[in-house]
């Protein structure tokens, strides 16, 4: 299939009205001409943690959200994007629960990475662990097998609990490949058109390396799963938070990638009223990307922008974000912090709030995103110009909840009455419908406090002009009759 070069929505299954059935109705009633690019539904499967990212199975939809029938119904009108956490599965999954009962004689034992698959004697070596890009203090969890009483140490890259809720899969195992094949075939049968490979950077564990995006081994897996996806007419989107050079390697291999650099670049441009770094970046980046400003995690900083930012300047920007109510996710491993100790992994906030709830600044940010080459994704909180949900952070103790507010139908209708949201919808319609966005892109010369970007295709031309001193955003374009038109965003 070909991905549509139009705007996509990112949402949890229950974030716009409480269920998949209501999501379908909300899309029909309020946004029927808005998300022509597709709908990324964050994991709707039964899950034991991490708001869906610790799935028990991919063959069922969490009953509280709805059913596969609801996914199919949304998929009849929109390209549906779902996640596969290729690195791990839930501790509560039937597969791992059977392993906990029976240990190595379980038919599912080979799905998992017991430590003897890493170290021959099964004993972890701290010197090896010190080299790894860690997401928790220790990359394994210890379990007791019920029937034998024996202890088993199993690799767990992620998870806030001990033992972890997210158990790593052994992607070298034929049983894992069979499981992934079954998952993809089930997706195809239920109208899923795009699959995001979540946490794919962590799948290869190799001693002496960071165990993150290990080359060339990772390409062997990516080639295998791309062949599987191609055979089912499914597009792939690998999700890799890493040094930008790794993203570019993925692009060279023909994969779609995420532009995890753009959200920070745009924020820096609007806060500091200087577009030089943004304009330089836009002239060099690969075009085959999905673009975003906000998501369910945060604005990426390290390692995505390593080598692209001055940490002293970054600290100032982070301090501004903190003053505006943001909170931070930090790097765990000392070895992967900056030399001066800078350790910000992500800035967690609503993008509207981090721009001081300034309508003009927010629309300028979206206009830059929509003009940057790629497939634009709009997170549901950003769609409704939602603000930081600090109450939910206090209630749950989870910093990411700041940007995960669930909207009732009443709240959606209230948001649709806001000028900033109506202006954003008009901008999305223009991005979806104007033909030049399938043509050629240029960054035009401009002063440091201006952004000027242009798309042309045949007789069609549209030019974005942003004055950063006022955040005034204007699009000049040529309509189908050849008339020059000015669109004040």
Structure commentary:
- The protein has 489 residues and is α/β, with parallel strands linked by helices.
- The chain folds into 3 domains: 8-84 and 174-438, Glycosidases (TIM Barrel, Alpha-Beta Barrel); 94-168, Alpha-Beta Complex (Oligo-1,6-glucosidase, domain 2); 441-488.
- It contains 16 helices and 20 strands.
- It has helices at residues 20-30, 68-77, 94-102, 126-130, 174-189, 217-231, 244-252, 262-272, 276-284, 311-323, 351-354, 359-371, 380-383, 390-396, 409-416, 419-433, and strands at residues 8-11, 38-41, 80-85, 88-90, 140-144, 151-155, 166-168, 192-198, 235-238, 257-259, 289-291, 299-300, 327-330, 344-348, 375-379, 440-443, 450-457, 460-467, 472-478, 484-488.
- The strands form 5 sheets. Strands 9-8-3-2-1-15-11-10 form an 8-stranded parallel β-sheet. A 5-stranded antiparallel β-sheet has the order 16-17-18-19-20. Strands 12-14-13 form a 3-stranded antiparallel β-sheet, with helices on one face.
- β2 (38-41), α2 (68-77) and β3 (80-85) form a beta-alpha-beta unit.
- The longest helix has 16 residues, at 174-189.
- The two termini are 33 Å apart.
Q: What can be said about this structure in brief?
A:
The chain has helices at 20-30, 68-77, 94-102, 126-130, 174-189, 217-231, 244-252, 262-272, 276-284, 311-323, 351-354, 359-371, 380-383, 390-396, 409-416, 419-433; strands at residues 8-11, 38-41, 80-85, 88-90, 140-144, 151-155, 166-168, 192-198, 235-238, 257-259, 289-291, 299-300, 327-330, 344-348, 375-379, 440-443, 450-457, 460-467, 472-478, 484-488.
């Amino acid at each position: 299939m070909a991905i549509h070069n139009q705007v996509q929505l990112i949402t949890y299954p229950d974030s716009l009205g409480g269920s998949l059935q209501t999501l379908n109705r909300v899309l029909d009633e309020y946004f029927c001409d808005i998300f022509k690019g597709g709908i990324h539904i964050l994991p709707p499967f039964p899950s034991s943690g991490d708001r869906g990212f610790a799935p028990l199975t991919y063959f069922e939809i969490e009953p509280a959200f709805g059913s596969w029938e609801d996914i199919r119904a949304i998929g009849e009108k929109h390209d549906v994007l779902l996640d596969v956490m290729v690195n791990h599965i839930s501790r509560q999954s039937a597969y791992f629960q059977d392993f906990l009962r029976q240990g190595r004689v379980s038919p599912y034992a080979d799905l998992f990475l017991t430590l003897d698959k890493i170290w021959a004697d099964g004993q972890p070596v701290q010197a090896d662990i010190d080299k790894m890009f860690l997401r928790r203090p220790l990359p394994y969890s210890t379990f007791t097998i019920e029937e034998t009483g024996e202890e088993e140490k199993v690799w767990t890259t992620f998870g806030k609990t001990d033992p972890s809720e997210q158990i790593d899969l052994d992607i070298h195992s034929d049983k894992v490949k069979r499981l992934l094949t079954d998952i993809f075939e089930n997706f195809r049968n239920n109208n899923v058109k795009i699959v995001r490979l979540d946490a794919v950077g962590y799948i290869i564990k190799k001693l002496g390396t960071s165990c993150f995006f290990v080359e060339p081994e990772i390409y062997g897996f990516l080639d295998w799963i791309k062949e599987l996806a191609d055979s089912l007419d499914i597009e792939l989107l690998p999700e890799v938070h890493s040094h930008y050079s790794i993203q570019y390697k993925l692009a060279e291999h023909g994969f779609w990638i995420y532009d995890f650099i753009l959200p920070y670049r745009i924020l820096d441009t609007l806060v500091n009223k200087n577009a030089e770094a943004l304009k330089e970046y836009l002239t060099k980046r690969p075009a085959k990307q999905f673009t975003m400003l906000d998501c369910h995690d945060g604005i990426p900083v390290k390692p995505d922008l390593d080598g692209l930012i001055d940490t002293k300047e970054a600290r100032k920007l982070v301090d501004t974000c903190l003053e505006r109510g943001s909170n931070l996710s930090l790097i765990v491993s000392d070895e992967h912090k900056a030399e001066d100790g800078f350790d910000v992994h992500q800035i967690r906030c609503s993008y509207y709030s981090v721009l001081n709830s300034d309508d003009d600044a927010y629309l300028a940010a979206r206009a830059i995103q929509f003009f940057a080459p790629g497939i634009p994704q709009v997170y549901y909180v950003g769609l409704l110009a939602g603000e930081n949900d600090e109450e939910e952070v206090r209630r749950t103790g989870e910093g990411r909840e700041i940007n995960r507010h669930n909207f009732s139908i009443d709240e959606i209708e209230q948001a649709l009455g806001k000028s900033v949201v109506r202006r954003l919808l008009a901008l999305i319609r223009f991005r979806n419908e104007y033909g030049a966005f399938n043509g050629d892109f240029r960054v035009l010369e401009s002063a440091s406090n201006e952004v000027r970007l242009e798309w042309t295709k045949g007789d069609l031309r549209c030019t974005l002009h942003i004055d950063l001193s006022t955040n005034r955003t204007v699009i000049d374009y040529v309509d189908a009759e050849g008339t020059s038109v000015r669109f004040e965003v």
